[in-house]
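Issue 218. Parser rejects a valid record. Input:
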Amino acid sequence: MTADQQLTSAPSAERIPRAPQPPGEEVFRVLVEAVEDYAIFLLSADGHVLSWNPGAQRTKGYAPDEILGRHFSVFYTPEDRAANRPARLLRSAAKHGRVGDEGWRVRKDGTRFWADVVLTALRDEHGIVYAYAKITRDLTERIAAEEQRRSLLLEQRARSAAEEALLARDRFLSVASHELRTPVASLRLAAESLVRAHHNGRLDDARLTSGIARVMKSAQRLSSLVDELLDVSRLTADVTELDRTPTDVVALVEEVILRLDDGEEGRVHLDAPRRVEITADGSRLDQVITNLVDNAMKYSRADQPIEVRVSDDPDMVTISVTDRGIGVEPATRASLFDAFSRGANADHVHGLGLGLYISHRIVERHGGSIEAHPGADGTGTVFVVRLPKDV
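Output the parser choked on:
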């Protein structure tokens, strides 16, 4: 067969059977009628229902003969109708071309569902709005599922918080009972020793003085532990008022160092200007500096120096305390300022683990910050306190 014969024998485009093509409006109508998951319908320029697809009947519960010609405000809650929300949505769509909206809508049977709505203005060749196309999707199941997920998440968080509270309580009871037991035992032994010496007629002045000193030391330790617990309670409840007065930070640091480092070795070295004044509660700042310097002394050897530096900036004063002790493990650093937090390498050091927590709360109440970093050479710890000069 020649090429010419092939061409003449091939069916022409006119001979290929084609499906009948309905007009464009009919195609659109068929498409809309096939949609059941969306309510798609037309409103007149004043908001009356002009068309109704199966999705609209399924979503809103009205048959076409029950809703055609009625005003679309029937789908809104009494609260929205009282607030004139339907009319406001029409005006917004006319002004901007289309408007999206989410909210409660009302079915024929009075039940409510959460709707996602798009309202589009249709204009004629002169730009005049002659109708609105409205598409509504029922999101009730999705919202309910999200609410259920949210409730489960809140429940899990509450359960975790309760478990953490129980762990914190158990940790507190363990640490507090251990720490309180030591001074109580010392107090009891000192008192019993004095009683025995008295009964045996051996309570001379030297033994009495020594026994009373042991009793006072134990009582002082007990008092300190109780004060820490009271501080935690007050600071956590935010019932502690700060007595803000002009305070010389350098003088405060010098006083703390003199009180804690009273030995001849002079372990604590101070680098500071002559005077730095801020508005603060001096007694509370004394507590912070005491905690930091005391920690540095407890967590490092007696032959290791401790450096305290005060830096004076225009709006801020910085106090840093650097030791070359055992340092803080990376896993512990995140919880270092939590109540009853004690590093895994701190078993040999007495305390409730409240000093840094109390210091953190005091510094925060002053509008400042406190941080802990590893030492520059990778050993020890640097605590840095930053405080605004005037609050």
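Fixed in the parser; the record now loads. The longest strand covers residues 112-123.
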